């Protein structure tokens, strides 16, 4: 039996998505292989030792407070002065800032704990969409054109943006996921609202051109020799919003496998692997791409801790290849231990 620490919750707006993902993982994990300790991070940043039945939408008053002792030979986590013991690996199911951006990964490295997913550098650069785009572009991979706006900058008006990027643009916080703070903009009124909202979440905002193409996603798994699945497709109208991703009555349609001309599949898979390597990813990532009518492949985003809810694309893509949800978790933990610290 391996001792597995599962981290969930977090201080980002994606707190609830983390809880949903964690519930699904706990339901699927092979209990004959792992002893599980569950730690929840509240929106206020409190670390709590939880029982599984305490896992709810909010981690606040529930559970026992946990203290961290980096470097302790008895284990790094304590509750009521008692060590929680040694852990063979950590599964951080934390989406967004302070969880997916290298912060938790750096803490776990200081504690010499193997963890699932990419390391500090990869997590940080993949979280920042502006840095991601620059690295991918410089490596010769195609991305949508964009304009970066930072707090304190002189803000261009919609007409100026239109001249640079076209009449339809997408406004996004640079460091956020699950479509939080993302807006499709087609006029001046929408432009002002979208920019104001996106700047609530980050000091950096991307304004991207709209790409006419199919929205495809590919799951990548591995350390030195990553493997890619086929592709799934999201059909959601104007764009795949937070509500479309997670609402119980979502009208978005997820198609696995995507009905793509087979001649494009090798290039799509190789593009996903190339992006994974450029960003120094390890363990796992989901690579989101556009495929245009002309056959051009543009990378949209790279998600280093993809959603693991019952409707999430990453585990579903691997299930399509024959790797079950529980076996996927096993493989991720093996990759974490293989990589070590």
Give the SSE layout.
Layout (H helix, E strand, L loop, with lengths): L1 E8 L5 H14 L5 E8 L5 E4 L13 E2 L1 E2 L8 E3 L2 E2 L5 E5 L9 H8 L9 H8 L1 H10 L7 E5 L7 H8 L3 E5 L9 E3 L2 H11 L5 E6 L3 E10 L4 E9 L6 H5 L6 E3 L9 H14 L4 E10 L4 E7 L9 H9 L3 H15 L2
Parallel strand pairs: 1-2, 1-8
Antiparallel strand pairs: 2-3, 3-4, 5-6, 6-7, 9-12, 10-11, 10-12, 13-14, 13-16, 14-15, 16-17
Overall description:
The chain contains ten helices and 17 strands. The protein is an alpha+beta fold and 341 residues long. A five-stranded mixed β-sheet has the order 4-3-2-1-8. The mean pLDDT is 90.
Query: How many helices does DSSP assign?
Result: 10
Q: Tell me, briefly, the overall form.
A: globular
Please state how the strands of the largest beta sheet are arranged side by side: 4-3-2-1-8
Structural class: alpha+beta
Number of distinct beta strands: 17
Mean pLDDT: 90
Please give the share of residues in helix: 25-40%
Helix and strand sequence:
EHEEEEEEEHHHEHEEHEEEHEHEEHH
Low-confidence stretches: none
Largest sheet: 5 strands, mixed
